[in-house]
Amino acid sequence: MYSLLLAVGFLLGGPLYVSAQCPDYADYSTQKHEPFSEGKYSLSYQRPSPSCRTFNSSDVEQTIQEMRDIIKDPDLYRLFENTFPNTLDTTISWKGFASGNAEEELTFITTGDIVAMWLRDSANQMRSYKPLLEANSSTDSLASLFRGAINLQARYLLTSPHCNAFQAPVESGKPPEDNSAADTDTVVPSYDKNFVFECKYELDSLSAFLQLSYDYYDKTQDSDFFGKFQWVKAIETVVTTAEQLLVGTYADDGHVNDSPYTFQRTTTSASETLLNKGAGSPVKGGTGLVRSAFRPSDDSTIFQLFIPANMMFSSYLGKSAAIMEKHDSDLAQRMSDLSASVRNGIETYGKVQHPTFGEIYAYEIDGFGSSNLMDDANVPSLLSAPIIDYVDASDSTYQSTRKFVLSTSDPYYMHGPVLNGTGGPHVGPGKAWPMSIIVSLLSSDDDNEIISGLRQIVSSTNELGLIHESVDTFNAAQWTRQWFSWANGLFGQLLLDLKDRKPGILSTSFQA
Ligand SMILES: *[C@@H]1O[C@H](CO)[C@@H](O)[C@H](O)[C@H]1NC(C)=O
Ligand SMILES: *[C@@H]1O[C@H](CO)[C@@H](O)[C@H](O)[C@H]1NC(C)=O
Ligand SMILES: *[C@@H]1O[C@H](CO)[C@@H](O)[C@H](O)[C@H]1NC(C)=O
């Protein structure tokens, strides 16, 4: 059960820590640990002991203490106390400097139970600490973690802009993780398995780098940082990659265009490979929308003009253009132009008329007139459109879309006595994802909806006190992924958001 973890980190030029006998959190998070919370759900304490935590932040510890007086329900507080620090406690797998530049910080952040860094997960794992982020040049600060994540993502994207998950940097001395699921993958452009863990092209991965950059800049105004290392070049790669993915399947004269990316896997699951020899369903060019072969669930798209990722891309490309202005004004202009044309594509082609809900955003379209009306829990989702700063939550098309998504008209809406929310084909029908409930509360102004959602989350952790990937809507003991750092961080982010927006709700009791 307990593996001997001999973690020897060389940070600041010396050994950071040598810890023996730290439990493997993948096992630890499947068991209950005392002291249990004193409410009716008797939730486990799930923080590793201080010497086994992967990063210490006094700001995070202080916030955990402050929230003790604000969150009145003992079970809800326990869930906050476990989840908010989970990324720092368990997933900062390595932090150090680039071998080529002693000032270039690098942060390798794993997803939790999988030892690889996803561009999307790591950007969101960091985002949960955005409320506490401020300018700070110390390598012990949250700001340093952000800088290290931005620098490492830039390195990944410069080499493999179509890939979604990556190996530890060579400087860490950690060997590449074997990904047997990818053994049969045939991917164009090709990639190096010592550098890349998986190479599913997802537009939201490119957007995640932009979001992470914007989040850091938004709170620190640290413009100089972006000019120091490889950020400008990485953004140029992101923009060029996206521009190449504006192409449709057919040229004007009828020839078939080369697909900028193809992926095939030997699999029994339809969502793990792409049809048409790895190119995906035909796409009509000229919509202004950028193709995405896969979704943020890492499942393949049915139609490649995937609206939520286009929303996220347009949103953070536009915001990051302001950072670029000081470094390369031509590139900043290219970013603003592309951001505007993607938004125009979404507003022109991405909306459909639904017989019950009126005008709503489609999840995916092909540009020929077909659309896929659904939502999936993973962010970016349609439900998350205000969270990714694309649209205000009061927008009428968003509100109609939200009603559709949270209704039985959405093919991936799951309901039952345990919890109600969206899921997706990644885990399959019958399993709602707590992440979707968290997103519905982050985008809600309705106190009853927020209280009902918090009750569903706090009552459905199977006493483990962590946010699971999915939970069976009829049986809380049937869940997936015991250690999903992004979902944990997102829950912490929700409670900090409610502290500012709806403090009264945090004095609600969930014991009845
Ligand atoms: C965090 O602090 C504890 C002491 O409270 C220490 O044992 C541990 O090594 C620190 N972790 C890191 C990554 O510095
Ligand atoms: C910077 O961060 C470090 C580590 O969290 C902290 O000790 C220090 O007080 C911070 N400095 C400022 C100026 O906030
Ligand atoms: C889910 O929604 C249904 C109505 O659609 C409601 O009866 C049920 O109580 C809800 N489940 C939870 C756990 O709130």
From TrEMBL:
<dbReference type="InterPro" id="IPR008313">
    <property type="entry name" value="GH125"/>
</dbReference>
<dbReference type="GO" id="GO:0003824">
    <property type="term" value="F:catalytic activity"/>
</dbReference>
<dbReference type="GO" id="GO:0005975">
    <property type="term" value="P:carbohydrate metabolic process"/>
</dbReference>
<dbReference type="InterPro" id="IPR008928">
    <property type="entry name" value="6-hairpin_glycosidase_sf"/>
</dbReference>
<dbReference type="InterPro" id="IPR012341">
    <property type="entry name" value="6hp_glycosidase-like_sf"/>
</dbReference>
<feature type="signal peptide">
    <location>
        <begin position="1"/>
        <end position="20"/>
    </location>
</feature>
<dbReference type="Pfam" id="PF06824">
    <property type="entry name" value="Glyco_hydro_125"/>
</dbReference>
<keyword id="KW-0732">Signal</keyword>
<protein>
    <recommendedName>
        <fullName>Glycoside hydrolase family 125 protein</fullName>
    </recommendedName>
</protein>
